[in-house]
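Pilot study result, target chain (480 residues):
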Amino acid sequence: MISPRWFKDLSRADFVRSVGLYVTQERFYLVRMRKSLLSLAVLEAESREIAPAEDSAARKQALADALRSLVHFDPAKDPLYICLSSDQVISMEIFLPQIAGDNLAQVVDYEIERHLPFRREEIYYDFLPMGAKGDKVGVLLFAVRKKIVDDIVEALAGFGAKPRGVESSATALSNYLLFCTGGLSGPALLLGGQNHDWEMTGLSARGEGWRQEAVFAFSHRLPHSDWAQGPSRELFYSSLRESPRFFGWGNAAEFLRSVSEEAVPYEDLFDLGKGKLAQGDEMAADPAFIPAAGAALSGLREATFAVNLVSGAKKEKRDRALSWLNTSLTVLLLLGLLGWGGSYGVKDEIRLRQLQRENQKISPSVEALRREETELNRLRKEIAFFSEQKQRRGIVTHLLDELSRIVPANSYVSNLRFRENTLELQGSAESASNLIPLLERSPVFENVTFNAPSSKGRDNKETFSLKAEIERSKAGAAKP
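Predicted structure:
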């Protein structure tokens, strides 16, 4: 069963605002967005450079100075979501036994130190399930050193802002892509980046109808120094062959020029976003604002992948699964359904009483029509009876006239019976046998036979009992 698109959109309707902050080593990009029901708009898009620093304390101060000249949002009304560039986040695929699928969180927590060069206490991490791959279960792990996140959070705390979530640019860009396209129906490849570093992400659709969801196939960072060695080039071509849709952003064009002299067509991520949200001029000038917009989608309840590198953030997301608008609409819908269901009994009673009143009004007319119908049927029966008698009387008269014409004067008919188109004659004649040919020559009678043996009486005459059939065509012609 394919679920209607409008039902999914209605479940995300809201009136909220959100701020996305994309942080790189050299700059950060801030995008403020607003959602009115289902319409999204960019309210502000600004960027600032982060002064280079030799140690952590100096970088933290440089980050605070850059934020101080930029931040104009109200932290209480505009929730903040941070997106880190791919060179600050470690992303890798981990394959676990099938039995780990029922309790992935504990298994990943146990196995994480085997795959990362840091202790568990030194990192923030989160993961996304990738589904079964052969006899293994794959997860895409995202990890970042706590020192990087804590410096940003501490700088924001000086302005009273506390981020609701921290994610990688891979998930922020994927959320932006899925929001602009409305979802995927098959594999897709996303490529782009900044400063000669490229990110390549593979996405795919899983399930059907209402249960359809997008999943990560892979996520790789391709430094420029590794590109010339060949494995990254082969990885790109193999991924492109398996993905019917190819999306690009940032320096994707520069990347493709270094791959081949022939132009490789792709769908630009910024052009896709023009039809979905009103973009500011500054955002249009620099595609690096796209990851910041993708991070802000989490606060607008439009994010598909819920990755958060800050502990406890997933619980906060589940707590706010329904907005106040959705809750109000749900309550109104339930009240409307209850009222609609309860109104059926009242409507039926009203209709019944109306029908009873109408029946009382037309009842005298119905009785009069019934009496007239009974009288009409009685008259029809009388007419049929008299018509039948008239028809029968016409035939009998014709038969008597025919007999008086053909029976000799010295013959007498003492008894005559006519029934079922047959005529029976009894009487006396000088020669009873001579009557048969006389009657046969008549155009009215046929099949004339003796009905009983004849005998002579005292007057020397023969008694006879004859039977003759009436010709049907003659009888019908005799009616008029």
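One observation from the pilot: The mean pLDDT is 80. A full batch analysis is planned for the follow-on phase.
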